[in-house]
Amino acid sequence: MLDNANDGSNSKSMSIIATKGTLDWAYPPFILATTGAAMDMEVTMFFTFYGLGLLKKDLNLKMSTLGNPAMEMPMMGMHMAMPNIIGGFPGVDKGVTVMMKNLMAKKGVASIEDLREAAVETDVRLIACQMTLDLFEIKDTDLIDGVEIGGAATALEVAGKADINYFM
Amino acid sequence: MADQTLDAKGLNCPLPIIKAKKALKGMSPGETLAIESTDPGSVADFAAFCRQTGNELTSSEQSGDIYNFEIKKS
Description:
The structure holds 2 protein chains of 2 kinds. Chain A is an alpha/beta fold. Chain A is 36% helix and 19% strand. Chain B is of the alpha+beta class. Chain B contains 2 helices and 4 strands; from the N terminus they run E-H-E-H-E-E. The longest helix of chain B is centred in the middle third of the chain and has 12 residues, at 42-53.
């Protein structure tokens, strides 16, 4: 396997802090991480708070229309928005999650499972926040293999050396 | 003729790039990879990918709904 860091003089590094664990918000960090790795960047992802759930072995990501008034789903040639008052009804989140997953499959968008696997395969460094593990009582054995455990200092050390830093 | 071909039709960002990188990894310098894509965003993205990685984008053409690229591995 090629060593990304020694690939060329234009190699860059990127660090991403992932703080959100819903299906929709799982995409930006994993898309940028996998693309960065494909572009020979040295990529580190730090998972904290709800973002930590993205490292669980068993991913069952959900999303909600609540607090998401900008969300519009294409439907029968139009776009459907969901008023927050309806988004609170039982079953609406589940329905929207299914709709989104179907839409993504239809449009050829990768699943988060696939993107995460690509990240692991391309040696993206994955760091789980120790404090979040303690706070939400998540065991490191619940997480996928190859995950490091670290804290804010670990994240900042990486960020300080990175060319690109994202907080998501 | 390219040394290898990649069918990325129907795939959306960032899959064409990730699959192209995977294919290039298994190739030798100087070999060429031909890619077929239906993602309009891949036109700008393969150009950026090649500028960043140093591989050479030897061809980028559209025919109908298909975008054809050829990359020469550096």
